[in-house]
Amino acid sequence: MVSTWLLWFAADAALGLADETLHWMLDLHPLMPLRQLSTLMMFFLTAATLFLTGISPRAPLRVVLPPLAWNLWALLGSLPVLVWLFLEGTYGVAITGAQLLAALAGIAGAWSLSGRPWLTATSVAARPDFALRRTVSTVLALPVISLGSVLWLLLNLQYAVSWSTDGYVTVDARGLYMTERVLERGDEHVELVGMVHLAEHGSFDELYERLGDAGPVVILEEGVTDREGALSRAGRGYEKVAARLGLQEQPRAASSDQVEVRQADIDISELSPEALDLIVSIMKFYAADEPLTAMLGLQDSLKDLGGDEAILRLLLAELVERRNDHLEVEVRRALGEGRRVVVPWGALHLPDLQRRLEAEGFSVTSESWRLVIRFSTLGNALRSRDD
């Protein structure tokens, strides 16, 4: 059983690496049908091998642990490699390459026992079929492995959020934080204020009041216009999901004696039909009465757009970079008027805008954080729905 699993694992790794290499170089997945069949067989073989490893010394740890460790790592999302390489399109090569290395490590363990790339009957003949000590050790290790896996996943998710937003979003045990950075060039002043569309009640009012208290300011507000009514089929935005989570939907900023609010976003008609479909699908999910049904519909819509990598390319090219092109023009216009500029935009927009400003001679002079969503708030809202 162990030898069959090990060799199948190695063949599956080689097949996956070949397919992912072709995808990376030629944007093709010709071996995907074979990989799907191989993965299904791997699932059953791994389950059987895992059970055997837990009770029998006939499954030598030096042989089974490297592939089993890879399976656990892949199950936990292949972090942090997935985060590092996803946008470059090489994450599949890295993950299947790691699988092949794990297979070779297992094969090396088998070779050390049998002199062959697999285990032979004579190489494990002296080992008992069952060992109470190993079984007890396995039972005791399971909670430790489970807890360690959860902690690994949480730490890597925390890292992934911070890394992918260049630190504009951070997470700790209390909740979700947004970062504010001040960039200056001479007497020119731009504040990049990380925003999220849902936050604790009152937090948006406190933020807008604080921005106005610092003196005259131009707030360049995010939010696409919809002159042709293209979003009318998408529902009412974040209102329903905010209510479910015990949070507040982001309101529009209001102008005052000290605050001038300018709409600094594009019109939705300037986006491609694919980008518009993506926005509509996401907004329908947020506005749905049945979140589970809406999630299934969203998944179908995302598949139609070409998969994860195509969606990310679309997200970056149109929903981030194209809108940032327009925003950059508005920032320059406000700076040309000698105004203090505040940009309260989503965290995905701000790293790119910061790089553009730094390329023009701006530098970060201060940084601060504000707590926008408490985990306790989410927990209380979810418990109240169960009651």
Work out the radius of gyration: 26 Å
Structural class: alpha/beta
Record field, number of beta strands: 9
Q: Can you tell me the overall shape?
A: elongated
What's the helix-strand series? HHHHHHEEEEHEHEEHHHEHEH
Total tally of structural domains: 2
Number of helices: 13
Helix-residue proportion: 55-70%
For the largest beta-sheet, the strand count, sense and barrel status come to: 7 strands, mixed
Residue fraction in strands = 5-15%
Distance between the termini: 48 Å
Mean pLDDT: 85
The low-pLDDT segments are none
Report on this model:
This protein is of the alpha/beta class and 387 residues long. The chain is built from 13 helices and nine strands. The protein folds into two domains: 2-164; 169-386, no CATH class. Helix content is 58%, strand content 14%. A hairpin with a 3-residue loop joins strand 1 and strand 2. Helix 1 (2-26) runs antiparallel to helix 2 (32-55) and helix 1 packs antiparallel against helix 5 (91-114). The longest helix has 33 residues, at 132-164. The radius of gyration is 26 Å and the shape is elongated.
